[in-house]
Amino acid sequence: MASPTDRKYSTDHEWVLVDGDVATIGITKYAADQLGSIVFVELPEEGESFGSEDAYGEVESVKSVSELLLPVGGEVVAINQALEDAPETVNDDPYGEGWLVRVRLDNKGDLDELIDGAAYDASLA
Amino acid sequence: MSKSKDAVTKISKTPLHDEHLSLGATMVSFAGFDMPLQYQGIVEEHLATRESVGIFDVSHMATLRIRGEGSWQFLQHILANDLEKIENIGAAQYSLLLDEDGHIIDDLIVYNTGAEFMLIVNASNAQTDFDWMIQHCPDDVEIFDESERTAIIAVQGPEALEVIAELAEEDDWDPPKRFHLAPLTMVGGANMLVARTGYTGEDGVELIMHREDAVAVWRVLMSFENVNPIGLGARDTLRLEMGYHLYGNDMDRSRNPIEAGLGWVCPKTKTGYIGAEAVAKARDEGCKEKLAYLKITGGIPREGYPVLDVEKEIGTIASGSHSPSLGVGIATVYLPRKFAVEGTKLQIGIRKRRAEAEVVKPPFYKK
Predict the structure, then answer these.
(1) Residue B352: what pLDDT?
(2) By the 8 A CB rule, do B57 and B14 touch?
């Protein structure tokens, strides 16, 4: 199935949906499927700042721990607190309710490093 | 003493290897075998075993058969548990192979099949066990490693016995009692031993058969709607929820049965077996450490993570996982005895973070 075309992607399997200067970040369906059932999500605190490609959290499945790498630099303005009690939402709805963090972009130029849905899908093939 | 050995890089396949691949399993190298880690997902497979039936290819485990007049005396000498308890034909018991210092060489199940004794041992220890047994074997005992001719499929879950009854050619086939085995002929002719044992905490059996029958048996099992293939991932979470030991994590050649919480496998009334004196001494004098069970909130414990008492490291996680049935972290750890007490509150170091842990009594999961 094609990835949504309303957003951009990193080759580290994260998606970025931009609204003004705030970007919502999540992991792709492909990444969620590869991880299997996600049982724990560790997210940063609101107000923390990260550079592009910094590790900002972790997702854990039963058998693995994977670092989350921020595709764009900025300050965390919101985290998806619902994942604390329902980490499986990342598997169930990776492009919607399973979002991870919202970041105020430091540099919109970071977005130029990202690829569109078609290019992301092609990278998986 | 250790013999020098060439590096072993050969990866073995069980007779069910192609079945796993055609089911789309994620494969992993385990004890020299290419084994299924998961098919649908560890959580799904775990819950399916708790709720209906899971089938597991455990053909990597080694099967040793002990024959000859002196078999009983020999096994009574090298195994910690008392064979008097399995005098009846068909009876089985969990036991330990110990060295003279009382340290654990392996854990295993010994079956009294009548004509002989059958031992099912860990794949990773098979060679060590076999060498140890040969070294202690008297002239009137023969030891056969039948692992390569044998396949084992575990069928576990609340509906497992119904499935097995359907397999049997006989209409009125009765399952063996718990920790017993019985022969079964499957519709189509495959002969197997059905052992009412397992590693999940669920009722169920382990089917021990000729290697060449494995695919046919597996396919018949898979034809049942309530049967799910289960990989090593869920096998581990299922056993950990029950507090069952895993060799290499929860015990090894540096631990004795008393500190491992396996004193019950070494009856006080039995003496004269290898390691008996060391076990008696450990029992009388107590051990510095004891295997403890931790329930963790706010993170998932993993092997090697530090266990802390107010920022002082007092142990490292031996086995750790998310518990699919309970939705919390569960773990084992060797702790100084004063901490290995139910209700003790500790912390787990998860990278820079701390998660709360409490010492609990096993099993983690109760029906």
Answers:
(1) 85
(2) yes
Find the CATH number of the domain harbouring A16.
2.40.50.100
Residue A96 lies in a domain: yes
B322 interfaces chain A, CB cutoff of 8 Å: yes
Mark yes or no for CB contact A36/B324 under 8 Å. no
Contacts of B322 in chain A (CB under 8 A): 39-40, 60, 62
* Domain around A26: 12-110
Q: Is B44 on the interface with A (CB under 8 A)?
A: yes
Q: Is the pLDDT of residue B95 over 50?
A: yes
Task: Assign B106 to helix, strand or coil.
Answer: strand
Whether residue B23 has pLDDT greater than 90: yes
A3 found inside a domain: no
Residues B84 and B365: their CA atoms lie apart, in Å, by 31
Instruction: Label residue A125 exposed, middle or buried (CB < 10 Å: 0-12, 13-18, 19+).
Output: exposed
Nearest chain A residue (CA) to B45: A37
pLDDT tens digits for A81-125? 999 999 999 999 999 999 999 999 999 999 999 999 999 999 998
**Chain B residues touching residue A58 (CB < 8 angstroms):** 351
CB pair distance less than 8 Å for A39 and B43: yes
In this predicted complex, what is the ipTM? 0.80
Residue B2 pLDDT > 80, yes or no? no
CA atoms within 13 A on the CB side of B278: 16
Of A37, A40, A60, the CB nearest to B43: A37
* Interface check B237 vs A, CB under 8 A: yes
List the single residue in B37, B42, B299 with the smallest CB-CB distance to A37.
Answer: B42
DSSP character at residue A106 = S
Q: Residue A44 domain-assigned?
A: yes
Query: What is the token pair recorded at B247?
Result: 């060799």
pLDDT at A115: 96
- Asked whether residue A7 is assigned to any structural domain, the reply reads no
Tally of domains within chain A: 1
